[in-house]
UniProtKB/TrEMBL annotation:
Organism: Novipirellula rosea
Source superkingdom: Bacteria
InterPro entries to which the protein is assigned, alphabetical: AB_hydrolase_fold, PRTase-like, PRTase_dom
Pfam family, one: Pribosyltran
Segments forming domain Phosphoribosyltransferase: 112-263
Membrane-spanning intervals of the chain: none
Name of protein: Phosphoribosyltransferase domain-containing protein
CDD domains per record: PRTases_typeI (cd06223)
Coiled coil: none
């Protein structure tokens, strides 16, 4: 249980909790660290407090939410072993990609492009791209987080810096022009960091007029996926196909409303986390994403400058 905006120390019956419990707090959130340490002392033995260095209360600093996600994924992998093995549908991300490919291989696609959501989604994307002989690229889109509910996205930011607002935005309390600009700068900084890593000297793949397959290794709430959908649709693909191994039924319904087709393998009602459906769900590094992209990209020819005399 991340302690984001939470006070586990105030739970009246915390001593009766028997499930393995993870508390995650930002390293700069001094007061909440102390309160969570108090809560930790009241929890059963199988509990832990993880502190994310450099993070404040809402984990708004670039890269800190990814650390939270990694800690939570590892916790679920460790403590959902029995359930995960019973529910496991995929050996690893490569296996999930192969199973998705079987569902995609019968489709007629126009100049197909596979876009993966980093980091884990790039493994699935690379398998699909290889199987259907498609171009592979990364989609760099970040959700824009609501002022009081950072988990709730009110829009998306594309790597060109453009802001895409969804209809929810007009009902968000505290969403001022100043807040929007500050949030845009934070997310643009993270996008630029990833551009430097993943784009190198290769421009973004052309999207307009093509069959685009947008994929990840699984979708829970879908905030990042919906951000990517908004950015891709704005570039007018011939069709947008979202391909995911597993997603909860509620998220599936929203996905089906936002794109031309959704290819999925399972939408279980007992969905807790993406990791529970994998036998192996190891963290993926930025360098692994870079290596995947480099293997699928053709080198850009270096033309010599000829001077006519």
């Amino acid at each position: 249980m991340p302690s984001r905006s939470g006070r586990p120390d105030l739970a009246d019956d915390i001593e009766y909790v028997r499930a393995p419990t993870l508390l995650i707090v930002g390293g700069e959130d001094r007061t909440v660290i102390e309160l969570n340490q108090q809560a930790l002392g009241r929890l059963p033995r199988d509990a832990r407090l993880e502190i994310v260095p450099g993070a404040t209360h809402l984990f708004s600093e670039p890269g800190t939410l990814e650390q939270v996600s990694g800690l939570a994924s590892h916790w679920f992998q460790t403590h959902l072993q029995t359930k995960r093995k019973a529910n496991a549908m995929f050996h690893d991300r490569d296996d999930a990609g192969r199973q998705l490919t079987a569902a995609l291989s019968t489709m007629e696609l126009l100049d197909p492009l596979v876009l993966g959501i980093p980091r884990g989604g790039m493994i699935t994307a690379a398998v699909i791209a290889d199987a259907i002989d498609a171009e592979l690229d990364v989609v760099l889109a970040h959700k824009l987080r609501s002022p009081l509910q950072p988990e709730l996205a009110f829009g998306a930011l594309g790597e060109d810096g453009r802001v895409y607002l969804n209809p929810l935005a007009r009902d968000i309390h505290g969403l001022t022009e100043d807040y929007l600009e500050d949030e845009r700068k934070i997310q643009l900084h993270e996008i630029q960091r990833r551009q430097n890593l993943f784009r190198s000297d290769h421009p973004a793949a052309k999207i307009a007029g093509r069959s685009v397959i947008l994929t990840d290794d699984g979708v829970a709430t879908g905030s990042t996926m919906f951000a990517a959908i908004e950015v891709v649709k704005a570039q007018q693909p011939h069709e947008l196909i979202v391909a995911v191994p597993v997603t909860p039924p509620t998220t599936l319904g929203r996905l089906q409303q936002q794109c031309d087709r959704v290819v999925f393998l399972s939408a279980p009602a007992d969905f807790i986390a993406v990791a529970q459906f994998y036998e192996s769900f190891l963290p993926i590094s930025d360098q692994q994403v870079v290596d995947l992209l480099n293997r699928h990209r053709s080198p850009i020819p270096k033309h010599e400058n000829h001077i006519e005399r």
